[in-house]
């Protein structure tokens, strides 16, 4: 059974090396677990959608909850799905600082990434919009 989980967290270390390390680890681990998704990062905040089997996704989220690189982890949305929306990425990446501010304003009161201030469905819609506008890099290939 496929599921999609959406969460947000704050980065403990916001250096480019720390963020690159998180992405590299995800891209190395996720394919063997059948996990796909995207990670949006900006202003010290992660917004991530992960898709895959119920057990691997749940185990990964448990790992994230205990990962010292994340704080203030918040589950935004969890659902059973018929098909993946982010299946082309072992872990696609969005650098929110390079996204047109009008895209963010469609989903928020301000042109900043703040998934803590909006619903999980709004955050998922933002990620889908970013995917549709090709703002995601790191496509599996």
From TrEMBL:
<dbReference type="GO" id="GO:0071949">
    <property type="term" value="F:FAD binding"/>
</dbReference>
<dbReference type="InterPro" id="IPR036046">
    <property type="entry name" value="Acylphosphatase-like_dom_sf"/>
</dbReference>
<protein>
    <submittedName>
        <fullName>Blue light sensor protein</fullName>
    </submittedName>
</protein>
<dbReference type="InterPro" id="IPR007024">
    <property type="entry name" value="BLUF_domain"/>
</dbReference>
<dbReference type="Pfam" id="PF04940">
    <property type="entry name" value="BLUF"/>
</dbReference>
<feature type="domain" description="BLUF">
    <location>
        <begin position="2"/>
        <end position="92"/>
    </location>
</feature>
<dbReference type="GO" id="GO:0009882">
    <property type="term" value="F:blue light photoreceptor activity"/>
</dbReference>
């Amino acid at each position: 059974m496929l599921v999609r989980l959406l969460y947000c967290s704050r980065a403990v270390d916001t250096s480019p090396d720390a963020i690159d390390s998180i992405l590299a680890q995800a891209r190395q681990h996720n394919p063997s677990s059948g996990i796909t998704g995207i990670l949006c990062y900006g202003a010290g905040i992660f917004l991530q959608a992960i898709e895959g089997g119920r057990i691997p996704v749940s185990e990964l989220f448990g790992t994230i909850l205990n990962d010292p690189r994340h704080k203030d982890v918040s589950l935004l949305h969890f659902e059973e799905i018929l098909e993946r929306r982010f299946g082309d990425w072992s872990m696609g990446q969005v650098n929110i600082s390079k996204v047109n501010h009008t895209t963010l304003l469609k989903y928020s009161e301000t042109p900043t990434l703040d998934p803590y201030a909006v619903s999980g469905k709004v955050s998922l819609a933002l990620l889908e919009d970013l995917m549709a506008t090709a703002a995601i890099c790191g496509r599996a290939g």
